[in-house]
Structures are given as C-alpha cells and as structure tokens.
Design brief:
318 residues; alpha/beta; Rossmann fold; eight-stranded mixed β-sheet; Hydrolase_4; AB_hydrolase_fold; MAG_DAG_Lipase; Serine aminopeptidase S33 domain-containing protein
C-alpha cells in the first residue's frame, strides 16, 4: 500500500513539475541572443543592399527600419529575386511592410527576409515581440493583453517620426506567433492595411499546446498534462490559451491574404493553417501548401516564396 501511495505521489510531483516548467516556457520564452549571421547584416548592411536604422519606441519596443541602399549594388539574394521577376518593373516606393517574427525569435531573424522585400520596393519595419529580443516586457500573453492588440500601432506612431506614413500603403507579414500578432493588430489598428502575408500560423493556440503535449506524452497522458497546464496558467497568470483564437478574429478581416504552410510542419499542423485560411472573410486570398516545408525550412524550399508573396502584395495595392 505504501509503495502504491509513493508511486502516486511521485507521479503527482512529476506532473506538477512538468506543468510548472512548461508554464514558465510559455509565459517567459527563452530570449534568443544575437547570432553571428545577425552581426553580418548589422555590421555590413551595404553588402546586403540595405540600410538599417535602430530605434526604441516611446513604450520601449525595439525596432529596425530596413530600406534599400544601392551604393554597392544589389546583393546576391536581391539579384536572384529580380531575375525571378522577369519583366516586372519594381516600384521605388511600394509601401511599408511590417515583419513579425515567431516565438523564441527576434527582429534580427527577419533581416534576410527584409533584404528580399526591399528589392521589391518595400520599406520594412521589424520589431521585437513582447519578452523577445531586446523587449523589456516581463511576460508574453500571445495577443491577449490590450497593449498587445495595439503593439504595431504604437511602433508605427514612433516610426512616423522618421518616415511619414500618411500617403504610404501599409502591409503586414507574420510568421507563426508573429502571424497571430499580425491578425490581432490588423483587426484592431486605426490604420488600413492593404494586404497580409502569413507563414506557418495557427488557428488556435490551445491546439498547438495540446498537440505538442500529446506528441511527447501520448494522447491520454498528454491531454491530462495540457488540462493541468491550462488551469495552472489561468490560476497564476490569468491566461487561458483557448482565448488566443486567430481563426475567430479572421472572420472579421477582408484584406487580401497570402498564406504558406508546410505539410511536414510538426509544431503547427498544416490542417490548422487550412482552418485559419478558411476563416478569413477575404475574397482575394491564396494558400500555398508546401509539400517539402516544415516549421523551420518553410522560407527556403523550392517554392519561390518571396517572388509570389511580394507580387501578391503589390497586386493587392493596385
């Protein structure tokens, strides 16, 4: 009998430990330090055909402005993209494209992405999401807090001190968690966004957590762990993952949409991407399911993502 009680107690302690550890990882994602390739862009921007300016908004959100700088000509990536465009004539000022990174990422991760889009005439705005990169926010609430719903607007207000946005077309781009922020911020923005690109984005956050738990611990134990995690998050942080529901918000959005999702994505199933895509009220929308893509290689498969998404956005403007 004592042995059985000891085993049960051990299991309960183990469950609680797993829940608390994962709870902290959710609310306080480990901050990714600057990588060697980040410094390559930051220290030698002209080699990549860009000019990079670094700022911090009034509410302490770090951001980068990335513009094309042709003093050393086009970079290799920009030349490849230009070649793919064929006879298409790039406009010098296509508008402002906001780029939002994924969970555990940082704004500098998207410098290679910005390098391509500036070659299409966009000025790119890259910012650190809450509790990421150089952000001083203590917690991440996955768009659930009011300030997170207007996160981009606050940065755009500061951005406008350096570049006027009065007559510029605005576009949104988000990957994974950044996609959820993109949807929420477009919906709540005082600005009108002309189009949006979403990469590997989930329809509901609770499904991501539950699926990951089941993949590690099996259906029964994984479901039990998720239920405990949900209750613990609600108790300690007043945060319920099921309330992070981009698909519900998408029903109110009609702007042109380009989505891409990898069929081999093990973190966010492509079926979640399909559900999210189908939720949008947009009449002009396109979903590309990449047969080779997973959550990490989705931007570097054989699919000409930058050409296709860029031309889609430029077409949405016209």
């Amino acid at each position: 009998m004592k042995k059985i009680l000891f085993i049960l107690l051990f299991i309960l302690v183990l469950l609680k430990t797993i829940i608390l550890v994962n709870q902290e990882r959710i609310m306080h994602p480990e901050k990714r330090p600057l990588q060697a390739y980040h410094y390559e862009w930051l220290n030698h921007p002209l080699e990549h055909g860009v000019k990079i300016e670094k700022y911090i908004s009034e509410k302490k959100t770090p951001y980068l402005i990335v513009r094309q700088e042709m003093s050393k000509g086009l970079s290799k990536r920009q030349k490849l993209l230009t070649k793919q465009l064929g006879e298409y004539k790039v406009k010098k000022d296509a508008g402002v494209l906001v780029l939002l990174h994924g969970k555990n990422g940082r704004k500098e991760d998207l410098l290679p992405v910005a390098e391509r889009y500036v070659a299409l005439g966009f000025t790119c705005l890259l910012l650190d999401l809450p509790h990421h990169g150089e952000s001083e926010r203590k917690h991440l609430y996955y768009t659930n807090k009011v300030y997170e719903k207007f996160y981009v607007d606050e940065v755009l207000e500061d951005f406008s001190k350096h570049i006027s946005i009065e007559d510029k077309a605005l576009y949104m781009w988000g990957m994974s968690l950044g996609g959820a922020f993109a949807i929420s911020n477009v919906l709540n923005s005082k600005h009108t966004f002309k189009g949006m690109v979403l990469v590997s984005t989930f329809d509901r956050f609770d499904r991501v957590l539950k699926r990951k738990s089941q993949a590690i611990f099996g259906d029964v134990f994984g479901t039990l762990l998720y239920k405990g995690l949900e209750k613990s998050l609600t108790l300690f942080y007043d945060f319920n993952p099921s309330l992070v529901n981009p698909a519900k918000l998408a029903k109110e959005l009609k702007l042109p949409l380009y989505m891409i999702h990898g069929k081999k994505d093990e973190l966010i199933a492509y079926t979640q991407g399909e559900k999210l895509f189908n939720s949008f009220a947009s009449t002009q929308k396109k979903l590309y399911l990449d047969e080779e893509g997973d959550h990490h290689n989705i931007l570097v498969t054989k699919h000409k993502f930058y050409k296709e998404s860029g031309l889609f956005l430029l077409g949405a403007r016209e």
